[in-house]
Amino acid sequence: MLAFSVLLLVALIKAQEHKLSCAPNNPVPDVEPWEGMRLPSAGFGGITQNITSYTDIILNSPGGSVQVASRLDWGGSLVFFGMSGNYESNTIDNHDTGRELQIALYDSQRLMQPCAESATCADPNPQQCGTGDQWLGWDPVQGGDMCGRGSKVLSYEQVGDSLVVTIQPTQWNPNWADSDCTTGCEAPQVLVDVTYTIELRFVHELIVEVSLTISSQEGFSHAITQQEFPCLYAAFGQYGLDLNRLFDSNSNEIQWVNPSPTTGVSAVQFNTPNAWASWQQSDLAYGVGIASDQGQTTFLGTEGPTTGQYPYFHYVRPMNAFAIQAGGSVRGRSYLMLGSYATHQNLYSSVLIRRPPFGAVDQPAQGEPISYSTGQGIIFQGWALSTWPTFITVFVDGTPVAYWNPSVQREDVCGIYPQYALCPNVGWIGTLDTSNLDSSCSHLV
Fold first, then answer.
1. For labelling, which of 113, 133, 384, 398 has a CA lying 20 to 30 Å from the CA of 99?
2. Which contacts of 239-242 are long-range, i.e. CB under 8 A and separated by 24 or more positions?
3. Residues 219, 221, 227, 230: is their CA dihedral positive or negative?
4. CA 29 – CA 6 distance, rounded (Å)
């Protein structure tokens, strides 16, 4: 249920019949939808730093039992999520700049070298050097490039109960825009005119909210493409913990079938009804889950082979597809859960399911006084997003008087917040009947 507040002041024409008595009203301050309408914080456990061969900034849980770490050397990508002071409990693969929890973007028109240079990769029979990741096209990776050179952290800071890191990502393939098939690490690192902002905040002792913002400063747009927003590489045994079993939210284990004959990698697209999936160790007693705030129920799981030249790894992500407009922004949110599979089920049903909808009233403006005559209809319009389909409840002085369903196309909203339920039909419009309002009173809507 989603409610908004707008103040209706004294009408110009007084009603003949008083059907609602005057009630005190206290309009609430305007709330920024993305920051102000979300799960409440569980508290702030402090930010610490760990310097070894890398520099990791650590957000501690409010109870002090859990830590999540952002690696400054690798574009602020997440390299640790586990029990405090216990490196062997780390559920995240931090093998290299391509394997952590991070953002990586793509463009179907600039997918591979050399067709990326002319933005013709979506054409029939495009010119292509090969299918390996050394020939990827436009692909700003948060962690860094294929040569191990980390992306640039522009800033990190505490904001309220959150750790906020801002990054300028680098192209995975430094030769991505070449018109030939040159590849390798002789070319310099290529930073992209895009910034990523990642905000980490505990909403439960075992749940980290991961809020992501993409901001483009480029002069060209990118077509709708499947994006890693984010992707999660789970621990694969590098430090002892091997999370080798992937489950959907209905306790179904993902079966790895039809591995690639050349690499041995298995990839499975699966449906998970409650929009989360969990990598677990063999006894399901410990692991990491990832939940989609957008309510995305289609996920992609991938596993590398245990033998052969191709690396062994565990990967999962929600299947988020969206475009990136020149100069535009995109926002999304995920949640990391720590613990057993049963714990993840409980965390979803007790915490994540309570995530409120968010949105805005576009007309009238927040706090704008409106004069009306009794019986005159007043038009309201705005937008609402939710993990699941929602509706608008209209309150007058605290009493519900109407219910409106989102049904208006709002491509502008869904361009910034892609993949949320009902997109693009998330706009709403309704007319408030004032027949029962006393025009000698002011009313809070």
1. 113
2. 239/87, 239/88, 239/90, 240/88, 241/88, 241/89, 241/90, 241/91, 241/281, 241/286, 242/281, 242/282
3. positive
4. 10
Structure tokens at 71: 């690696």
Separation CA 388–CA 403 (nearest Å): 17
Q: How many Cβ atoms from other residues are within 10 Å of residue 91's Cβ?
A: 25
Amino acid residing at 78: L
Handedness of CA 149, 155, 158, 159 (dihedral sign): negative
pLDDT digit string (tens) for 41-56? 999 999 999 999 999 9
pLDDT digits over 197-254, tens only? 999 999 999 999 999 999 999 999 999 999 999 999 999 998 889 999 999 999 999 9
The letter for the amino acid at 99 is: R
Is there a cis peptide before residue 126, judged by omega within 30 degrees of 0? no
Going 15 to 16 to 17 to 23, the CA torsion angle's sign is positive
Residues of the chain with pLDDT > 90, as a percent, come to 76
- Rg (Cα) of the chain, in Å, rounded? 25
CA atoms within 13 Å, Cβ hemisphere of 325 = 13
Q: What are phi and psi of 125, to 5 degrees?
A: 50, 55
Query: What is the pairing mode between strands 358-363 and 152-159?
Result: unpaired
CA dist 304 to 60, 99, 122, 392, Å? 31, 12, 28, 45
Model confidence pLDDT, tens digit, residues 129-181: 998 999 999 999 999 999 999 999 999 999 999 999 999 999 999 999 999 99
